[in-house]
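The record is passed on directly below:
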Amino acid sequence: MEKEVKKKDVAKAYEKYSRQFTPRPTYFVNCLRAFITGGALCTAAYFINNLLIGRGISEEDAPIYVTIGIVALAQLLTGIGVFDTIAQFAGAGVIVPISGFANSMVAPAIEYKKEGPVLGVGAKLFSIAGPVLVCGITSATAVGLIYWLIELF
């Protein structure tokens, strides 16, 4: 019984000691950075969307081009090693949108490029994206089948 009490006391003392050296997260600043960066990203995307529409691209096609551009830019920034620096500053402002998805696809592929194009890049490229694509395609198929059955009856 005394050993258990001593272990608990030691654990509490260690926890108190380690809190002194653990940096406290700055939640408000992190949220503000994410909000401003994510907002700037969305504003830039909307601006480009309107620019494309003004240049004659249809309102249905313009968002597709903008999305492709964001994905390509995120992949390029990941490839040259800049995306991680931006993400460290902006946090969820760039990681949550589709740019984060593009980064999560490219980063493992770059890490394992030494393994070769098939077993390295090819295999790791879809290590994150694979489950997302499978779930997305499966969900879309299920919704399509339900919609088709409703239309049938």
In short: The chain is about 80% helix and 0% strand.
